[in-house]
Amino acid sequence: MKFFKLNYLLIPLITFLTAFLGGLITGGGMAWYKSIKLPAFTPGGGVIGAVWTGLFILSAISAILVWNSSLRSEQAVRWKWIIAIFIANALLNIFWSWLFFGQHQIGWAIWEAGLLDLSVWLLIILIWPVSGLAAALLLPYGVWAAFATFLTYSVWKLN
Question: Structure pTM?
Fold first, then answer.
């Protein structure tokens, strides 16, 4: 019988903390957000919240699959890079909310969103040889991050 693995608790907890902190910062900037010009294709808040919830769940599952893979012992260097990029991705996620909603620095948020987007695609590329499923679970995140980067750019152009 296998024992409960701590990563089944820690990875969702880190994911929840990332979402919570980003949401807290975002919530604090909603009055400002409602006062700026938004592109016509901007999804509503309910859609954005639902999409991010789904993406965080898929990311947590992907991270658990990678953590539990044999990669840790077989390719320790690749495994360490993947974990480091997952952590960087979480920090970039929070930092984008701080730049955009907290500091109203839309221009800097574009560059930061590009880095966030890059971190997702790097994860997909690095994870694919290890677990096609774990990488595929991140594909919607990669598409959404690219869209979010374009949306941020569009907001900047309007304001």
Answer: 0.91
The identity of residue 53, as a single letter, is T
Helix ranges (H only) for 75-105 are 76-97
Give the start-to-end residue ranges of the domains of the chain: 7-30+43-158
H/E segment holding residue 104: none
Residues 110/76, Cβ–Cβ less than 8 Å: no
CB–CB of 122/85 below 8 Å? yes
Tokens of 56: 């965080």
Q: Name the amino acid, one letter, at 104.
A: H
Residues belonging to the chain: 159
Exposure on the CB side of residue 103, measured as CA atoms within 13 A? 11
How would you write the pLDDT of the chain (159 residues) with one tens digit per residue? 466 677 889 999 999 999 999 999 999 999 999 999 999 999 999 999 999 999 999 999 999 999 888 766 677 788 889 999 999 999 999 999 999 999 999 999 999 999 999 999 999 999 999 899 999 999 999 999 999 999 999 999 999
- Name the residue among 115, 129, 147 with its Cα closest to residue 82: 129
For residue 63, the one-letter residue type is A
